[in-house]
Write a structure and sequence with these properties.
- InterPro entries: DNA-bd_dom_put_sf, MerR-type_HTH_dom, MerR_fam.
- It comes from Terrilactibacillus tamarindi.
- It is a single chain.
- The chain is mainly alpha-helical.
- The chain has a single domain, classed as Orthogonal Bundle (Multidrug-efflux Transporter Regulator, Chain: A, Domain 2).
- Helices cover 68% and strands 5% of the residues.
- The radius of gyration is 18 Å and the shape is globular.
- The termini are far apart.
- The mean pLDDT is 83.
Amino acid sequence: MTNNNSSNDVLLDFNLLSRLVVGIGEVSDMTGIPRRKIRYWEEKGIIQSEKDAEGSTRRYNYINIKKVLLIKELLEDGYTLDAAAQKVELRMKSMNETFRQLAKFMDKDLSTNDLKE
């Protein structure tokens, strides 16, 4: 039997997530999406790779891996690629705004606690 808390801990390790950058082969292996399809999604502007130099291997961060997984799920649910990409962008904007508000709340809460001490 596995402990659900320990399996979720990696999702809360923001330091790890910020450093998570893997090559296109690893993304393909992890997600089951062929490299050719990942490159196509990048050409369409749905995802973005981090390239160090011209001709270097495509590398993807956590956010783009998350997008690949969400798009895969939506495609399996019957969405077209364009509809899936639009839905993922809306989800990412919503998540970003939620975390931005949370960060403001946490900053405000921390500064209020500092004043009390």
